[in-house]
Amino acid sequence: MVDEDGRIIEGRRYRHDERGISALCRRLTELEVELVSIERPDGLLIERLLDAGLSVVAIHPNQVAAMRPRFSAAGGKSDSFDSFVLAELARTDSHRYRVLVPDSDATKALKALTRAREDLVQTRVALANELRAQLQCFWPAAASVFADIDRPIALAFITRYPSPADARGLGEQRMARFLARHGYSGRRTPAELLARLKNAADGRAAALESEARRQIVLALVSALEPIVARITELTSEIRDALGDHADGDTFRSLFKDPKSVITAATLLAEIGDCRERYPTRQALSADGGQSPVAVESGKSKRARFRWACDHRLRDAIGTLADASRHHNPWAKDIYQRARAHGCTHPHAIRILGRAWCGVIWRLWIDHDVYDPAKHTALQTLLAASQTAS
Questions:
Q1: Crossing angle (nearest 10°) for helices 329-340 and 311-324
Q2: Are 84 and 154 in the same domain?
Q3: 175 and 68 co-located in one domain
Q4: Summary mean pLDDT of the chain
Q5: On the chain, which terminus has fewer CB atoms closer than 10 Å, C or N?
Q6: Burial class (CB in 10 A: 0-12, 13-18, 19+), 137
Q7: Is-contact 120 227, C-beta < 8 A?
């Protein structure tokens, strides 16, 4: 803690438990601290500081690292020194940072759901890859029967037939009964699925290795099944939460496919409902990773990929941009013109994503929904194409 002249008033450590956090908030309140700076924008400590009535700014770790040489030429680093740097930045450069305003409870709930689902999907993908690798070692056929190895019916099949020895008596009638029992909705007949099983490469694992891998496969399936089920449940909960949110209609209107509810919910959760967070569309585009970083030196000038951004928001905007170019003429035109200028696919998607950020920001600020008939750029393009034809 420093005073208005930069003199250190107090410096101490607090434990990250209830007693320590309460003591920290109480002490900051007693000293009438005007501004607290910290390196992360969310979390338990942030919530407690805000609940105590303190003003908090989040300063990116890259900015803190860049400021260390300003106060020390030795190049040292410590937690106490970083806390001093943060305090000085809050004292001298507070006008450059936005004071944090918490989102509503509905937005926090939606963010928790979408991030938890994302984490579970990553776990599912890792376990599915490990399961596929194990099957490739001694029974590749089991991984080729169904399109996705982590689908419930594929997991049920592997549970019933975890090794080649377990599937020796499997015929067309048994396959048909298995498919009926598990509600198979695919277009393949039992004979076609059996053909996949027979045409796959044969494993050469001996008896002991085959039994060992059989147990590993069963263990992986047991770990995957509840995760797959919970992801389905979370998807349903996210759909309901998005429908009940005040800004839900705004973000759902951006997507043509109703199945895009997860991307719409992620956009809403990461952008939030505090309108002061993004005062301009450029701010949203930068935080969403759609705007490049300008690097200039003398006569040299180039644009560099923006790494420091909200990666979840960047992925969601990229998904929206990539999907929209297939059905929205305005989005398709922007994408094609970018490709015609030599941009790669990811670069063209970011250019389109930056254009979408302007639309999203305007709708978000106005609490409005996307209507193609009111999209001026789209209507101008359609009118020009009709005139040309």
A1: 100
A2: no
A3: no
A4: 93
A5: C
A6: middle
A7: yes
